[in-house]
Amino acid sequence: MNATSAAVAAALTFTWCGMVLGISFLEAPLKFRAPGVTVPVGLGIGRIVFRVLNRIEAVLAAGVVAAVAVAAGGPPVAVAVPTAVAAAMMAAQLLAIRPGLNRRSDRVLAGEELPRSRAHHVYVATESVKVLALLALGAAALHTLAA
Q: What's 24's DSSP letter?
């Protein structure tokens, strides 16, 4: 992997990771603790924020995949595997988990009282795996730069 590809992959990866950590693990749970924020208001805000985050994630993921794909000599396994894991987690979230969460939040926003959702825990688990993969990818890309 050449230095330019590694530098681009590292920069995009740590940007992506920082956004996920800031939004998923700070903003999302904290907004419900703010005075006056009801569950419907928090869900409405969350839907907008996560829709935008997911679009930005898709752009960053495409950039990371492109940087890894154009790496001279091909990417090392330490770069390729976490790239695939992060992309797979994002795809699972967007294609399998988020649609159900969106349907559920539609029902809550319509005034329905529902029990807690297990899908939310699955989303948090995939988000956690994605963050770990991004940290591993960023570290591997930086290691490639230092080598």
A: I
pLDDT in tens, 77-107: 999 999 999 999 999 999 999 999 999 999 9
At a CB cut-off of 8 Å and minimum separation 6, what does 50 contact?
23, 28, 98
**pTM (predicted TM-score):** 0.92
Give the separation between CA 21 and CA 29, rounded to whole angstroms.
11
Q: How far is CA 60 from CA 10, 27, 42, 67, 122, in A?
A: 11, 20, 26, 10, 23
Three-state DSSP class for 33?
Answer: coil
Per the CB < 8 A criterion, the answer to whether 75 and 137 are in contact is no
> In the chain, what are the domain boundaries?
3-146
Measured CA to CA, the distance from residue 93 to residue 129 in angstroms comes to 11
